[in-house]
Write a structure and sequence with these properties.
This protein is of the alpha/beta class and 435 residues long. It has 16 helices and 13 strands. Strands 3-2-1-4-5-6-7-8 form an 8-stranded mixed β-sheet, with helices on both faces. The protein has a 5-stranded parallel β-sheet with strand order 10-9-11-12-13.
Length: 435
């Protein structure tokens, strides 16, 4: 099959054109015939016009790409190599939500050709591809796995907003249900991945590798967050402690902060779910999650304390909240912990004005019911300013003098990401606090 794909006698279809699928489709289209499928017709029409609301792919790249964008599921039938890249979130009870994955598998199954290879990129717990996805493919297609069609798993490693660690520059883990399948998958990805291909022992190993990548980060950040709380009680500056500790060659440098998004705060629950299923109660993994889930509340409570200590009223206090995206320089607001901070402040009857010119205003309104302000100065002066997201736009435009001009005395600045210099902030008269 690989030769037919390379010779453009067969096509590749990428199902799901979000943060993962679209950049992948664009990269593949430089070497293969690519069909880009998304069930959202509006998304397809925007992509045809060169518009990517996620700001992952430029208009020039989209318009010059030869991807055939479609929302017609019948078009999937034209592809022999199908990549599924759909979200795998958690529900309100923090249980894995495989609804998108099940739906995509059914969609692919209905349009599966004999002899096809289906590769999953969505993050799942070990065993999900074989236990959940393959039975759906068989049922919907009427075909038999490993006889009529084949399956692989290659975990996505996309880092939204990161222009250095792009798809081509990150080692790609691949796995397959047979040696032949593995070689084809490795050959396809090998055409676009400059950093190299790693062939995992089997599908379950590749699935497990993906979830622990983010679990490791989650636990390390949780440790630093807990230390930040402890050091605050001791009157120590956490970032100064980290600077000193970082002089040791094997010290791992992590920063305290709000852990949001659709990877780090989600993946631990997938492995925890599977662990419980096989009879083991995970402790460290869930402990780390509890710490990180509570950090937004902690920041909100510290903000309230500063308002009180500064002699300002709490009820009706005006607070400017800068940023609601889950990380800097991306419009993505899914699972943003800044929203948890916003909600906690609202519980204290604080008037919160959220300003984030990078986030999509309609998505924020739909997801959280928050109306973003268009002009931060329009509602000034504020009783406090919280810098929640380290957008480059904020770093370039919002100096301490500017923040001072839109804040009432005493000037309260909550610098979650530790952007500003402590001494300079205090010299300019700020009541300054950071994690």
């Amino acid at each position: 099959m690989l030769n037919k794909l390379l010779n453009k006698e067969e096509s590749i279809c990428v199902v799901g054109l979000g943060y993962v699928g679209l950049p992948l489709a664009v990269a593949l289209a430089k070497h293969f015939l690519v069909i880009g499928f998304d069930k959202n017709p509006e998304r397809i029409e925007e992509l045809k016009l060169g518009i990517d609301k996620n700001d992952q792919v430029s208009q020039e790249e989209l318009l010059s790409s030869e991807i055939r964008f479609t929302s017609r599921e019948e078009d999937i039938r034209e592809a022999k190599f199908i990549i599924v890249a759909v979200p795998t979130p958690v529900d309100k009870l923090k249980n894995p939500d495989l609804s998108f994955l099940r739906s995509a598998s059914a969609l692919v199954g209905r349009n599966l050709q004999r002899g096809s290879i289906v590769v999953y990129e969505s993050t799942v717990y070990p065993g999900a591809t074989e236990e959940v996805c393959i039975p759906i493919l068989e049922k919907e297609s009427g075909l038999t796995w490993k006889k009529d069609f084949f399956v692989g798993y290659s975990p996505e490693r996309v880092n939204p907003g990161d222009k250095e660690h792009t798809i081509e520059n990150i080692v790609k883990v691949v796995s397959g249900d047979t040696e032949e399948t593995l070689e084809v998958i490795a050959g396809v990805y090998g055409k676009i991945i400059k950093a190299g291909i790693y062939k995992a022992k089997d599908i379950r190993t590749a699935e497990a590798a993906k979830v622990i990548e983010n679990i490791q980060r989650d636990i390390n950040i949780a440790l630093i967050n807990e230390l930040a709380v402890i050091f605050h009680h001791m009157g120590l500056d956490t970032r100064e402690v980290l600077k000193a500790a970082s002089t040791k060659w094997n010290f791992l440098r992590f920063e305290p902060g709000l852990v949001g998004g659709h990877c780090i705060p989600v993946d631990p629950y997938y492995l925890a779910h599977k662990a419980l299923e096989v009879g083991y109660v995970p402790q460290l993994i869930l402990a780390g999650r509890r710490i990180n889930e509570e950090m937004a509340n902690y920041v909100a409570e510290e903000t309230i304390k500063l308002l009180i200590k500064s002699g300002k009223k709490v009820k009706g206090a005006k607070v400017a909240l800068l940023g609601i995206a889950f990380k800097e320089n991306v419009p993505d607001v899914r699972n943003s912990k800044v929203y948890d901070l916003y909600r906690k402040l609202k519980d204290f009857d604080v008037e919160v004005y959220v300003y984030d010119p990078i986030a999509n205003k309609d998505e924020v309104a739909e997801e959280y019911g928050i109306e973003l302000v268009d002009d931060i100065e329009a509602y000034a002066p504020y009783d406090a300013v919280i810098l929640a997201v380290k957008h480059s736009l904020f770093l370039e435009s919002f100096s301490l003098d500017y923040l001072k001009a839109i804040t009432t005395e005493p000037y309260i600045l909550i610098d979650i990401k530790g952007v500003f210099n402590v001494e300079e902030s205090k010299e300019k008269g700020f009541v300054y606090w950071r994690l």
